[in-house]
Amino acid sequence: MDKTNKVNRTILGVDPGTALMGYAIVRSKGSNLELLVMGVIELKKYKNHYEKLNKIYERVDSIIKEYKPEELAIEAPFFGKNVQSMLKLGRAQGVAMAAALSNGLPIFEYAPKKIKTAITGSGSASKEQVANALRLELQIKDMPEYMDATDALGAAVCHFHQTKLISRMTKSGGNDWKSFIKNNPGRVKE
Fold it and tell me: Domain 3-183 belongs to what topology?
């Protein structure tokens, strides 16, 4: 069975960054989701970019070893105007992915708009709206100071919802047009 169809699983969400990198771990039990931990890896104190990348690898690796997630959901880099910032962000993402791969985790990448849509229903939602929707969905009392942590939580929750949807579609007879037509007589005219 494909890991993404497991009912009970643990997901690591990551919001890549070179000043702050957000992370969150959620565990699903059937259709219920619980937050285990979320926080940030503070990288501002490291002046050398390569030292930051090393710290990202070490911390993501240690989080994986401690919580034993089965999947990594990571936010895709946002395409901005500053090429140097994009390059640094891409490297941070790649190092987090390498830590996941070295621990045998499959990686699922989601665009920021996809995450916002999965959490709030709107791809143009603000970070505050996403954080509030997550707070309500997971009944979180104390939200973290940095939005990087809630962005990482958003990636994990988005992945949970996406794979739940795929699993539901597969159980209902497939996710292709032929299955849709078969399962929805009268809705499509041939």
Answer: Nucleotidyltransferase; domain 5 (3.30.420)
The question of whether 75 is a catalytic residue gets the answer: yes
The tens digit of pLDDT for each residue in 47-63 reads: 999 999 999 999 999 99
> Domain coordinates of the chain in residue numbers?
3-183
Q: What is the mean pLDDT of residues 13-36?
A: 95
| Catalytic residue flag (residue 142) | no
pTM exceeds 0.70, yes or no: yes
Burial category of 164 from C-beta neighbours within 10 Å (exposed 0-12, middle 13-18, buried 19 and up): middle
Structure tokens at 75: 């936010």
Output the six-digit token pair for 128.
């505050």
Q: Which of 145, 148, 176, 190 is catalytic?
A: 148
The yes-or-no answer on residue 61 being catalytic is: no
Beta bridge pairs of residue 71:
11
**CA angle, corner 41, sides to 139 and 92, nearest 5?**
115
